[in-house]
Design the sequence.
């Protein structure tokens, strides 16, 4: 039985995701995964597992970057983390896999918008941002970046499987997987595919307000239900530091991220302040870490990287 099937409220006589009756029998009526099973999204996830394991055998750490809701800076943090890992050690190779199928933003954020993916005998070649930093995204496969991707679950599942099994990642120290907000098709697919390929864990991004934390608690619950280790939670946009007078101002009235982590017994990796220049760098594909090497964000990010490295070894 796969990790996806181990939900605590799974029907006792579940036919299983591989069955022809998946999602169609009376036992499935109250299951939260009925629609996914009946649509065929989860069926066949075991096929191709060996290819994925072989392709990723030289990837040391495979890390999901998750968020409970949109707009908390998940894709921006994925970019910052990837650049920070690659800058810390030029000998270590880092890659980003963008599986936010309907909203792929990594090509623009990493400054490689418009680049083409090439195919060889060893598979698809990712697009290189730096000598030791590469990225793969469906954004590279679109004829027009403004094209809408209107896909149902099975097709999303298929492209994620292709990215994991057919991209020639080579030897990597870190593969950061940028996911869409929530806990849906893409998350179920990637956690199932990576279950036997050595998924290191997940980093969860949030902003300080309680509305965001409500969804983060669901994300933590999701990780526990599918047996994904939580490497830690990062609080983004914790406060604003004036670039002129250096005065700190809280944007949100409350911040219960650290307390939530203590209550739910998950690691708190740290907080990042707001810098308007960061958004500008992301829009233009500029490396913020080099542009603002002395900023409070970069200093806070250094400690977060140390925390992630520590959690990866536990």
Sequence:
């Amino acid at each position: 039985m796969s990790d996806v099937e181990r939900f605590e409220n799974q029907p006792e006589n579940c036919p299983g995701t591989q069955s022809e009756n998946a999602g169609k029998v009376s036992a499935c009526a109250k299951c939260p995964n009925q629609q996914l099973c009946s649509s065929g999204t989860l069926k066949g996830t075991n096929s191709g597992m060996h290819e994925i394991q072989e392709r990723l055998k030289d990837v040391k750490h495979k890390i999901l970057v998750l968020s409970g809701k949109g707009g908390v800076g998940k894709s921006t943090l994925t970019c910052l983390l990837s650049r920070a890992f690659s800058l810390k050690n030029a000998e270590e190779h880092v890659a980003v896999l963008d599986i936010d199928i309907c909203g792929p933003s990594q090509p623009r954020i990493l400054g490689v918008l418009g680049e083409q993916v090439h195919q060889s005998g060893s598979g698809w070649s990712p697009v290189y941002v730096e000598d030791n930093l590469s990225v793969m995204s469906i954004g590279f496969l679109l004829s027009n970046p403004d094209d809408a991707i209107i896909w149902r679950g099975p097709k999303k599942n298929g492209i994620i499987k292709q990215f994991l099994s057919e991209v020639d990642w080579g030897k990597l120290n870190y593969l950061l997987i940028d996911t869409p907000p929530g806990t849906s098709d893409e998350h179920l697919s990637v956690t199932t595919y990576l279950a036997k390929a050595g998924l290191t864990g997940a980093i969860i991004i949030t902003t300080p307000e309680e509305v965001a934390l409500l969804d983060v608690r669901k994300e933590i619950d999701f990780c526990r239900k599918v047996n994904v280790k939580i490497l830690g939670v990062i609080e983004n946009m914790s406060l604003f530091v004036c670039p002129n007078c250096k005065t700190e101002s809280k944007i949100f009235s409350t911040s219960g991220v650290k307390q939530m982590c203590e209550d739910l017994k998950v690691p708190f990796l740290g907080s990042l302040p707001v810098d308007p220049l960061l958004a500008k760098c992301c829009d233009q594909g500029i490396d913020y870490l080099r542009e603002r090497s002395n900023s409070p964000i970069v200093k806070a990010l250094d400690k977060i990287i140390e925390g992630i490295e520590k959690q990866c070894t536990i």
